[in-house]
Fold this sequence. Notes:
Helix 4 (81-99) runs antiparallel to helix 6 and helix 12 runs antiparallel to helix 13 (341-357). The protein has a seven-stranded mixed beta sheet with strand order 3-2-1-4-7-6-8, sandwiched between helices. Strands 9-14-15 form a three-stranded mixed beta sheet. It has a three-stranded antiparallel beta sheet with strand order 10-11-12, covered by helices on one side. The protein is an alpha/beta fold. The longest helix is centred in the N-terminal third of the chain and has 19 residues, at 81-99. The chain starts with a strand and ends in a 7-residue tail after the last strand. The protein has 13 helices and 15 strands. The protein has a domain at 3-188: Spore Coat Polysaccharide Biosynthesis Protein SpsA, Chain A, CATH 3.90.550. 39% of the residues lie in helices and 18% in strands.
Amino acid sequence: MNSNYFLFVNLGKDLPTYLTKNIDLIKRTFGDHKVLVVVDEPINLLKLSNIGVSVYRYERKKSVSNLLQGLTLDQAFRKGFWQLTIDRLFAICDVVEKLGLSSVLYIESDVLLLPNFPLTDVWSLKGLAWPRYNHLRDVPALIHIETPAHAELMSNELLRLFSSNNDLTDMSALHALAETNKEIVNLLPTIKEGLENGNLVTRQEFRRASRIIHSMGASKEGIFDGASIGMFLTGQDPRNTYGFTMYLNPELSLPNESYLNLNQTRFEQESDRLYIRGSESKRIEIYNLHIHSKNDEAFSVSTEKFLANLINRANLGSTYLEFKPKIFLTLLRENYQQGTLIRYCYGLIRFLFRVIKKGYTLNLVQRDKN
């Protein structure tokens, strides 16, 4: 029976270690479930087949190719980052349609499923489901697709949305899709009472982004991390911030940023489980973490040890940055090759001045693990 699949997508020639380690961890944590990886480069077919997963080669439809070429997003940024994130959504739909899969859970390569992840409940969801970030963006960190028909609907809707607005990103397109298909798209709960950013979340939006999804019992009061919690605790991708990984960034809770206000919260650990407490003082379970920093240690050490390190860091309570020299040098080389080095260096100077002005701690001698 073609149901209950873990699905990953890896487009491009690079095969990151955090992806293969994440696959291995999922197989060890959740038992003998089916894992399928979508790739578009032949070299990765063999590499992934050797680690005991099924592999599907994605061939882009002409309609999608035309759409990607017409986007106004910066094609030079991170070697076509925006185009790849959008193409990934179509790849997800393509494999579900072509192979006739049902109850598929797509997991972004850098998303850590904690052992308490309500897998059975998520796989029994109807329609489509993913988490919300704010009033303009949803997050493809996790996407559940019930049937091939839902994958086809998602693909057609995305084609329509991008054709009518070529400024959309993957996140803004998912949000628009969810808003125009509320009877089909479930929002995985990402906020609860006492955690919300009251400057941004309306009461109507709060009810939608916090309600217990219908297949989960009343005892399942936890939340899914679309992006904010993982970025706050495990750092933000250093490729976006000049080779620096920023931890405990208060700007993630700015009034116009995320539905979550993390500046007034505390994190707790109980064995291999992670909890958050907000202003209501109620302890709320967290089901997953988006490891935005791409730190593969999240997938290679014991979950209990990894969470303990996170809690110790969070209890320091002050924002700090770690420098990743290898990533920084790669960024310099890429900008030199693209002819954008002067602009990039100017941006770096402005970034450092802003960090120093805000009083954040800079750690320039951190051992580079990435």
